[in-house]
Recover the amino acids of this structure.
């Protein structure tokens, strides 16, 4: 196995490791054999990823002695739904998975959420491994154990926590991604840079994502690992990882999920940074730096949806509690804070953040 593989421990309950490097999908069988007893592995993927990597993963697992079943669902956020979840659970039951077996989520953020949630509720919980194939899932969604599906009322409103047994992030997969999907993942990475420190954020200003993607992924995962270890169930600090997501999720919902998650979060990040400056919660030039960085990475800094439409969509956000909603405010690069505001103030806040 390659010496270029980086391994990052995640000290949650249970603890696991994130491996980052080339060739990991082809090595998944022997790597998982060292972590799991031989069992049946149900590989869950979508219709875009299946032709690219499903045979590689299935062959590696079988060669290592695992029994393999597969389930492929239609690609896209529109299918992160109760009906898709129902089909997936029926598939696991038809394959006769037991509590000693395992689900493998092969794909991007939607697949990681779908397969992870199915594993969390099937037989009241079986093991799951994450095999991210997109930049977005590599830097963010495959780590930390949050799983969810969308409801008609809003994004990620039904879900469960299930820490994976392992995460294998094959950086070779990035070569198959179109530019817009790379940009989609860059949004979550840039968000992490705003939360983390100047050093990480400056990598995106200097286009390090193109020249050293594995190092960028590793730095994002290390930052998120620390946050998740300190606040596994999102009672405090972990809420900071929602930077840009209140408006971002509203944009997704308004577009009927035609706008990808990362692009929506990028716009949401720019909106909240501008609002924070205009309302005196932070000092310039954070809004202009964030916007310039997003634009340089092929991402939007605004939206065509009105403040009224976005505020209405955000009222279903899971960060709402009663008549208040918690926003993540960027104070400066490397320092963000939580601000609980009345829902009645959300409309003027969003209005302040929209581009003039």
């Amino acid at each position: 196995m390659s010496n270029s593989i980086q391994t990052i421990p995640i000290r949650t309950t249970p603890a696991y490791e994130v491996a980052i490097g080339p060739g990991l999908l082809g090595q998944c069988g022997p790597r998982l054999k060292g972590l799991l007893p031989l069992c049946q592995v149900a590989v869950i993927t979508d219709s875009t990823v299946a032709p690219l990597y499903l045979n590689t993963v299935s062959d590696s697992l079988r060669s290592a002695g695992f029994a393999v079943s597969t389930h492929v669902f239609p690609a896209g956020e529109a299918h992160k739904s109760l009906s898709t979840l129902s089909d997936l659970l029926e598939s696991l039951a038809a394959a006769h998975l037991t509590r000693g077996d395992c689900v493998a989520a092969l794909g991007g953020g939607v697949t990681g959420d779908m397969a992870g949630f199915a594993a969390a509720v099937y037989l009241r919980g079986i093991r799951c491994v994450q095999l991210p194939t997109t930049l977005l899932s590599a830097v963010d969604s495959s780590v930390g154990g949050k799983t969810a599906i969308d409801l008609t009322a809003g994004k990620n409103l039904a879900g469960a926590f299930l820490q994976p047994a392992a995460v294998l992030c094959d950086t070779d997969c990035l070569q198959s991604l179109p530019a817009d999907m790379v940009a989609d993942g860059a949004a979550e990475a840039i968000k992490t840079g705003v939360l983390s420190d100047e050093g990480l954020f400056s990598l995106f200003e200097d286009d390090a994502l193109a020249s050293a993607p594995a190092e960028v992924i590793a730095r994002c995962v290390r930052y998120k690992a620390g946050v998740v270890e300190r606040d596994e169930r999102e009672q405090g600090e972990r809420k900071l990882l929602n930077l840009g997501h209140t408006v971002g999720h509203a944009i997704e919902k308004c577009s009927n999920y035609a706008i990808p998650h990362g692009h929506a979060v990028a716009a949401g990040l720019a909106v909240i940074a501008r609002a924070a400056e205009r309302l005196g919660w932070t000092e310039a030039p954070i809004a202009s730096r964030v916007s310039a960085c997003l634009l340089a990475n092929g991402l939007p800094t605004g939206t065509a949806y009105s403040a009224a439409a976005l505020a209405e969509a955000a009222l279903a956000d899971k960060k709402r509690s009663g008549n208040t909603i918690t926003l993540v405010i960027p104070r400066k690069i490397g320092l963000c804070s939580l601000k609980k505001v009345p829902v009645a103030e959300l409309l003027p806040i969003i209005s302040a953040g929209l581009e003039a």
